[in-house]
Design a protein that fits this description.
Blueprint: H1 3-33, H2 41-65, H3 72-92, H4 104-114, H5 116-141, H6 146-243, H7 249-264, E1 268-275, E2 280-286, H8 291-300, H9 304-312, E3 316-318, E4 336-343, E5 348-351, E6 354-357, E7 360-368, H10 376-407, H11 417-434, E8 438-445, H12 448-455, H13 457-474, E9 480-483, E10 488-494, H14 498-513, E11 516-519, E12 522-525, E13 528-535, H15 542-558, E14 564-566
Parallel strand pairs: 13-14
Antiparallel strand pairs: 1-2, 1-7, 3-4, 4-7, 5-6, 8-10, 8-13, 9-10, 11-12
Length: 578
């Protein structure tokens, strides 16, 4: 706040006090000392004056708030009007003489703010105006008497002489303050110069420090990036070693999910598999245990944003999740997420001018309940993990396919001869160890060559697949069924004696006998011949078990086909399966 504002504020406060005291004096005089019932004319005029002063002060407060006291013409006009109003009220209006005291306040303010040279003009203005007002009053009252004129004008001159003396004293105070201010200004200028010198030196030091700090920050940033790169490289290396050593997709994805939760420190991690034919996602692996949350995510995972991410191969990172855009987070408290497409190979690679599209395997969806939980470093690391997982999934799928080719017959989708031989070894060792019977049946299709010659090899293949499907669907889960040759099949019945095996095989023969195979306009029925053997009644080794069953099959063919024959060996005792 500037000096004039402070002085004016003090002046206004003193005026409030003056108005309050004048009002109290008027009340005490009229009501307590004079016991007046009605308000006197003097009291009414005094009240009018006090109200006008009050209004004038409110105007000054408004001007102070609007910062208009620093406008010199406005300030001079205000002071001239103020002095003129006080003199007019006392001389013309006949207000009490003590009101003259109010002239002291503006004179004091002018002196303290501008000095005694400036205030003299206002004193002259006040004296001239008082003489004019007094002359007008005398003339209007027709009181042209020497004594009265002398008294009035001598009072005016006396009061202004006192105002002059008072202004001189205040002017001296103003001069002292002015000298002090000038000294302070000189001191301030000197201090400012020194401060500028010090500031220049500090700036130079700051520039040097900034350069050092920038260098240190660059070194720290380089070290941080190097550390992060090494950490990411180590993490990816460890993940690669783990996932590339697992060829079971179920186990692979479970391990991957556990690794992601540990590395990323997320609330939830879910792996979604993609069905390309139906163009939908299905939850494969997740650590979400709450059933309600599982229902929500399962019902909403096939949303546009996830399908777009997989189709474009671009990851999605969102730190302020909107449930309208990501419906699978609704009512689950998820605020941040990253979605990484699982691709079998890099998005596109070029070799011999050919571009190969990626295979869409699925998505990894990691979620956090905190907002702004992920950054670009997390996204980059998840991209690296996603690529490794995609490649590992393709390797696992290839391994599974190779294992399937090596284990199962390509046409009938049952065990092939090599796989059956391994199963037979395992079951035979178990039967010997645990002393239970093991039955084996061999059968082939009667006159199968006629089907091929008559209807063609494609129809023959259909016959093989149909018979394999019927037999497979009729066996127990523990029975082992395999294709043993061209049209020859073999069945292993663990913990089954030859009597029970014969009953089962006979039911299979009857079921096949009633079967009709159709292919467009072609329709045919088939029969099969069975030979059965059993350990330990008819064989003591694996090869002997197969040979005795094969001999029994030969007997079935000799007997006219479409029948079941048992291996023959004297003194054989049936061992019932436990």
């Amino acid at each position: 706040m500037k000096k004039i504002d402070k002085y004016e504020q003090v002046y206004i406060n003193l005026t409030w006090v003056f108005i309050l005291l004048a009002f109290l004096q008027m009340v005490i005089r009229d009501y307590f000392m004079q016991n007046a019932i009605l308000i006197s004319f003097d009291s009414l005029s005094t009240a009018i004056f006090l109200i006008s002063i009050l209004i004038f002060n409110l105007c000054k407060i408004y001007l102070l708030k609007k910062d208009m006291f620093h406008n010199r013409p406005m300030y001079n006009l205000l002071r001239l009007l103020e002095i003129a109003y006080i003199l007019f009220s006392v001389i013309i209006m006949g207000f009490p003489q003590w009101v003259y005291v109010l002239v002291v306040f503006p004179i004091l303010i002018i002196t303290l703010e501008r000095g005694k040279e400036k205030v003299r003009r206002f004193l002259i203005y006040s004296l001239v105006l008082a003489i004019i007002f007094q002359g007008i009053k005398i003339y209007s009252n027709h009181e042209i008497r020497i004594g009265s004129i002398y008294f009035y004008f001598s009072t005016i001159f006396f009061l202004h002489a006192m105002l002059l003396i008072f202004s001189e004293l205040c002017g001296k105070i103003h001069e002292d303050n002015y000298e002090s201010q000038q000294q302070n200004k000189m001191l301030f200028v000197e201090l400012t110069d020194r401060y500028k010198q010090l500031e220049e030196a500090q700036k130079e030091i700051k520039i040097q420090n900034d350069k050092l700090r920038d260098t240190n920050l660059k070194i720290e940033d380089t070290n941080r990036k190097l550390t992060e790169s090494l950490a990411e490289l180590y993490t990816v290396q460890q993940i690669s070693e783990v996932i590339n050593s697992i060829f079971d997709i179920q186990k692979l994805l479970q391990n991957v999910n556990d690794i992601i939760i540990g590395v990323m420190g997320v609330k939830y991690s879910t792996i979604l598999m993609y069905n390309e034919k139906k163009n939908i996602f299905k939850i494969h692996t997740t650590n979400i245990s709450d059933q309600q949350e599982l229902i929500i995510i399962n019902d909403n995972i096939n949303c546009e944003v996830l399908l777009d991410s997989l189709n474009s191969g671009e990851p999605v990172i969102e730190n302020f999740v909107d449930p309208e855009e990501f419906p699978f987070v609704e009512n689950r408290g998820i605020n941040s997420l990253i979605c990484i497409p699982l691709l079998a190979r890099p998005k596109k690679f070029e070799r011999a001018q050919q571009i190969t599209e990626t295979k869409k395997m699925g998505l990894v969806l990691i979620e956090h309940k905190l907002a702004n939980a992920f950054d670009n470093n997390n996204l980059r690391l998840m991209n690296l993990i996603g690529r490794q997982v995609g490649i590992a999934m393709e390797n696992a799928a290839l391994y599974e396919r190779m294992n399937e080719i090596a284990t199962f017959d390509n046409l009938t989708k049952i065990y092939n001869r090599l796989s059956f031989q391994k199963k037979l070894e395992e079951e035979f060792e178990s039967a010997k160890k645990n002393n239970y019977p093991l039955s084996l049946a061999i059968f082939d299709i009667d006159h199968f060559k006629r089907f091929n010659d008559t209807y063609g090899h494609l129809f023959g293949d259909k016959v093989l697949k149909h018979i394999a499907a019927v037999i497979k669907n009729s066996l127990r889960s523990g029975d082992i069924f395999a294709r043993f040759g061209g049209e020859e099949f073999i069945i292993l019945f663990p913990k089954t004696d030859i009597k029970r095996a014969a009953e089962k095989v006979e039911s299979l023969r009857k079921k096949l006998e009633k079967t009709t195979i159709k292919d467009e306009l072609v329709s045919a029925s088939v029969t099969v011949s069975f030979g059965i053997s059993c350990y330990p009644c008819f064989a003591s080794t694996e090869s002997e078990l197969i040979k005795t069953a094969d001999d029994a099959l030969y007997c079935a063919k000799e007997a006219g086909r479409n029948c079941v024959k048992l291996a023959v060996k004297e003194e054989c005792e049936f061992i019932q399966a436990p």
